[in-house]
Structure formats: C-alpha cells, structure tokens
C-alpha cells in the first residue's frame, strides 16, 4: 500500500504577497494552493491508498470562508477517487477556548466521506484499497484537556510541562498496546520531538511547546511515525519505526530559504510483520516559491555604487523569486545610491521583500600632530591622504592640487 504524508499546510499565510486584481486573492494563497495541488494530483495519478496531513491546515485559528472552501475543494477531489484523508489537529487549528470547535471539525460533523479528523489521542481504523490501517492520532496537546487545575496547583511551568509529557507518553503507550499487530499501524502526531531541527515555526508559535522523547513514539506494533509542526523535512529516526517530519509544503519566510519542500511517500507491505512492513520511503519535492537573499558589499573606492549593486543583482536569476537585498556600504557613498534604479533592476522578482542598507561609518584615524613635532603642512597632508582609503586611487592628483592651494595661501600671507 502507498501512503502520502505531509504537514503544515498553513493556508492563509500571505506575507510577501500581492493582491490579484481579478480575484482579489493573495498571490501567496495561490502559492500554497499550487503546491497542495501538486500533492493531490500525485495522489490521484498514483492511486495512493491514504493521504495523511500531520496538522496545521490553516495559518489562523479562524480561517476565512475562502480558505476553508479551497481546502475542502482539494479533499473533495481525493474523496471522489476514494482516497481517504486523515488530518490530525495542529496548534494553528485549535481555538483559543476549549469549548469552541476547531476549523476542521466541520468534516466529521457533516459526515464527509473518506475524511477523518484526529482531535484526540485515540486509534482510528481506516479501510483503504489495499488493506485496513490503524492510525494513532496525537494532536497538539492542550494542557486543559490533559491536566485538571487541581493536578497543576502548586506546580511551576517546568513541572507542569514535565507532567504533561509524562501523560502523553503514557497515553501513546496505552494506544500502542491496543493495536492489532496483524494490521499496519501509523502514529500521526503534531508535536516537537527531541533532536529535531526547528525553523520558522518558532516565530509562528501560539503558546508553549511540549517536547517528547523519540523513545515515546517507538513501539513494535507501529510501522511508521508521521510528524508535523517542524517545518524542516527531516528523518529523526531511521527505525523501525521511521520517525519523520514531512516539513511544510511551502516556504513561510526567509528562514526556510534553503529548505527543500515537499511530501513523503511511504510504501508498506501489509503481509509482512510489524517492524518490517516499510518497503520504500521517498521524499517528493514540490515547486515551492523560491526565496532569495542577495548580499552586496560596496568597497570604499567604488566610483558608482548604484551600478555596482545593479551588476551584482543581474548576475543572479531572480525570476519569480521573493527577494530581499542587503547592502553593506560606506557612509561616504550612501548618498550616491539611486534606490529607484536598484528596484527597477529587480523587476523580474515575484516580490521585493525589502532592501536594507548597513551604512558603515568610515574610521577616521587620529594623527595627533602638533607644531612641536616639526611637521610641515605638506607632510601632514601627505600623512592624511595615505590614511584615507577613499582617495588612495588618485593620491598624486589630490596631493598636487592641495599643495597648489597651500602655496597660494602662503604667497598671499607674505
């Protein structure tokens, strides 16, 4: 059986985007939907048995109707081809009150075919084309649903977190003990695991993070652990079972500039025993929007700093990229910058995030000369020129002109 695992869809992220005049929608919304479409198209053409979304469907707790519509459209395409989708609830999917519904609860409420929502630590049995499969869901943990006020009274934050992690570990163990070892099993979680390399999800956090040990997810009856929440794709443990963060489908900001984006494809053999069922694992890249940082340093002896910056930009391929430009420039040359020309040279970019200038004040060496040193004006001038980097290239011409001025002044005072 073939399974697709992805995470952190974050429909609704619209930073670094523009509004389409015809549709009124953000260009970044189109980016996120385009990579989601790649995944859906692959799942249909490859006749996968199951699609797993390991949390964070939306960017916000209260997604707009448009965002909900676009997500539902794509689940409907999968459902029309009898491909079940399992979604575990992430921290961005949770309301700020325990009594309010999550944005994804609408699917089980309407009894939408082939869409399963994991909003509790529980096990769900799903029938697929190839074989039934057991899914343990580990949604983003909410303290209020796991620990009562009486249980946390008198505990500090670290003690509460430790107790919460103990409860989660015990809860996973209870579910794992109930698994039928003759049926494939996957744990789907939206959590942070010890040893994972974090990314921009730190800046998108909606509360405290809870960290589980990898050992908390390792049970003989579990064939694969599909994780979300960390945006960087990584294999935390080779297994068995494999513990994998799919990573986000689309880049959120420049901290993910160099991260490859995509989804995981897992092939299982239901006829094998637990621990030996995974026969193939593959990461499928998608055409995520490119982010590009351009760093330019302008030397003090640069005659045309604007032209130097433009030349540095045009050497690179920026077509369709979200670009930021960072320029380091001496304060003596900053006034020569033509920002309009620089922006025009970046017109092929999808979006110019920002242009920043690190203006460096030139160090002025103190010569500390006095008449008692016996230094003539000519010698003092020569010493000044040799310590001035910005005029070293035309030192002789400058010195000759300055000496002419000194001579003229001396002649007039005689």
Structure keywords:
414 residues, alpha/beta, Purple Acid Phosphatase, chain A, domain 2, 6-stranded mixed β-sheet, 17 strands
Overview of the structural elements:
- By secondary structure, this protein is α/β, with parallel strands linked by helices.
- It folds into 3 domains: 2-285, 4-Layer Sandwich (Purple Acid Phosphatase, chain A, domain 2), CATH 3.60.21; 291-360, no CATH class; 371-413, no CATH class.
- 28% of the residues lie in helices and 23% in strands.
- The chain has 11 helices and 17 strands.
- The chain has helices at 27-45, 65-80, 106-109, 143-146, 149-152, 157-177, 305-314, 331-334, 339-344, 377-386, 395-413; strands at residues 2-6, 50-53, 85-88, 115-118, 122-127, 132-138, 185-190, 192-193, 211-212, 224-228, 234-237, 242-245, 262-268, 278-285, 291-297, 322-330, 351-360.
- It has a 6-stranded mixed β-sheet with strand order 4-3-2-1-13-14. The protein has a 6-stranded mixed β-sheet with strand order 5-6-7-10-12-11, covered by helices on one side. A 3-stranded parallel β-sheet has the order 15-16-17.
- α1 runs parallel beside α2 (65-80) and α10 (377-386) runs antiparallel to α11.
- It is elongated.
- The N and C termini lie far apart (102 Å).
- Mean pLDDT is 88; it is low at 203-207.
